[in-house]
Amino acid sequence: MKDDAQARLEELIDKLRERDHRITPQRLAILKILVLSDGHPSTEQIYGQIKEEFPTTSLATVYKTIAMLKEMNEVLELGFAGDSNHYDGNKPYPHTHLICVKCRDIIDPEVEDLKILPQQVAQRAGFRLVSHRFDIYGICPRCQSEEQ
Amino acid sequence: MKDDAQARLEELIDKLRERDHRITPQRLAILKILVLSDGHPSTEQIYGQIKEEFPTTSLATVYKTIAMLKEMNEVLELGFAGDSNHYDGNKPYPHTHLICVKCRDIIDPEVEDLKILPQQVAQRAGFRLVSHRFDIYGICPRCQSEEQ
DNA sequence: GTAGGTGCAAATCGTTTGCTGATTC
DNA sequence: GAATCAGCAAACGATTTGCACCTAC
């Protein structure tokens, strides 16, 4: 495991302990999957991966673990209508996503920061800023080359 | 009905005719609701409103009409995981939204255009741009004042 | 008259919940 | 040992679909 993934995993474990959450084998496996994923795995993908190690694990456990991480603000949820949610356990704060509409791959592009724009827009309308989401949809290079 | 809403309604009717879609009373009512809404009504809200005029209308008809408009690119769909989708029939192209996380009100804020940013980000990663979505979440003035 | 639309009910899919037996601490 | 958790199945809510009847053109 890469150093930064290892460090993030230990950080998460510490935070669970702080809150008196138990470190069960299933939770540990889910945390590992999250910190080791480059992409933004969906619940189904996490479920599929964890079944390799713990075949009896249920989807409910995946959901419950993620709900716990959400409550701790240690995972970023990318919800999609009519599709599984995807999760980022490494950068649990708003950031730009580039999403392929064909293969549904999600990457973090290099992008100039939006900086104070969300705060500015919210303030101007009298809103107290909570968060924001910026998704760019396109066709990824691989899917482009596969077009006829 | 305001002039611009009237004009948009006629535009939509023309586009339906062009494609040999029939102008049924239910469809007309849904189109009216869409062009007259300042906000971004959800399917449930559209359903609720249309029932006042046509009590027998079904949710399925609302969904089917919206699916037709989506296919014609005449409505912008704002999908939310675990919530009804919302629709904008007046500005059926990507634009920034400001969303209250408490009352779920959605407004179009005055905002400097993102301009070429989505295209720039997509291009840099080799993606062909399809669309984008920029949502800012916060607490609206009314909900702030209602906080004890 | 006929292609297309409406409305109903059933099916679907992701997610959540209730509960019982098992496990971490 | 006790509080928490895992796993199962049932419940849920938004959306979609199949189909018989109906209606705009």
List the helices and strands and how they pair.
Two copies of one chain form a homodimer.
Chain A (H helix, E strand, L loop, with lengths): L2 H16 L6 H12 L6 H11 L5 H13 L4 E3 L7 E3 L8 E4 L5 E2 L9 H8 L3 E12 L1 H5 L3
Parallel strand pairs in A: 3-5
Antiparallel strand pairs in A: 1-2, 3-4
Chain B binds a DNA duplex (25 and 25 nucleotides) through helix 4.
Quick description:
The structure is a homodimer of 148-residue chains. Chain A is of the alpha+beta class and 148 residues long. The first copy, chain A, has helices spanning 3-18, 25-36, 43-53, 59-71, 117-124, 141-145, and strands at residues 76-78, 86-88, 97-100, 106-107, 128-139.
Name the features.
148 residues; globular; Arc Repressor Mutant, subunit A; alpha+beta; Dna Ligase, domain 1; three-stranded mixed sheet; homodimer; DNA-binding
What does this 3D model show about the protein?
Two copies of one chain form a homodimer. Chain A is of the alpha+beta class and 148 residues long. Chain A has two domains: 3-88, Arc Repressor Mutant, subunit A (Orthogonal Bundle), CATH 1.10.10.10; 96-147, Ferric-uptake regulator, C-terminal dimerisarion domain (Dna Ligase, domain 1). The first copy, chain A, contains six helices and five strands. Chain A has helices at 3-18, 25-36, 43-53, 59-71, 117-124, 141-145, and strands at 76-78, 86-88, 97-100, 106-107, 128-139. A three-stranded mixed β-sheet of chain A has the order 4-3-5. In chain A, helix 2 (25-36) crosses helix 3. Chain A is globular and about 45 Å long. The mean pLDDT of chain A is 95. The interface between A and B is large, with 38 and 38 residues. Strand 5 (128-139) of chain A pairs antiparallel with strand 5 of chain B, so a sheet runs across the interface. The structure holds a DNA duplex (25 and 25 nucleotides).
